[in-house]
Amino acid sequence: MTGVGAGAVELTGDPRTVPPGERGQTTIADRVVAKIASQAAREAVGVLPPDAGPPHANVVVRHGSARVRVHVELDYPGDIGGRCARVRRRIVDRVRDLAGLAVPEVVVQVERLHLAARPDTVGRTP
Prior knowledge:
A three-stranded mixed beta sheet has the order 1-2-3, covered by helices on one side. The chain contains two helices and three strands. The protein has helices spanning 30-45, 80-99, and strands at 56-62, 65-76, 102-115. The relative contact order is 0.18. Helix 1 (30-45) packs across helix 2 (80-99). The longest helix is centred in the C-terminal third of the chain and has 20 residues, at 80-99. By secondary structure, the protein is of the alpha+beta class.
């Protein structure tokens, strides 16, 4: 047996006929979008040096769009510009797909570059 609890409203008829203003609203918190952006950056960056910290993001959500600033650490030498572009694209795609938000701005801030060990220095001590 089902029933309607105190204070609940029972819906009648086809829900598609309810005017948009009366259907309700879904709000996604900034911190949730920041977690999505951080995970997307991790996926785009790929394998990092052992001492590198994971990417983290700060997000501001307003009027159906999210502005993202993500902090990453990368290995060097490498294509820094190309990797940052991959991070931007991945964040835009994942936030759009998972949160339904437009992402007009993604700032990728490279916090630290990790020098990759050169083959001629492996095994040497300073």
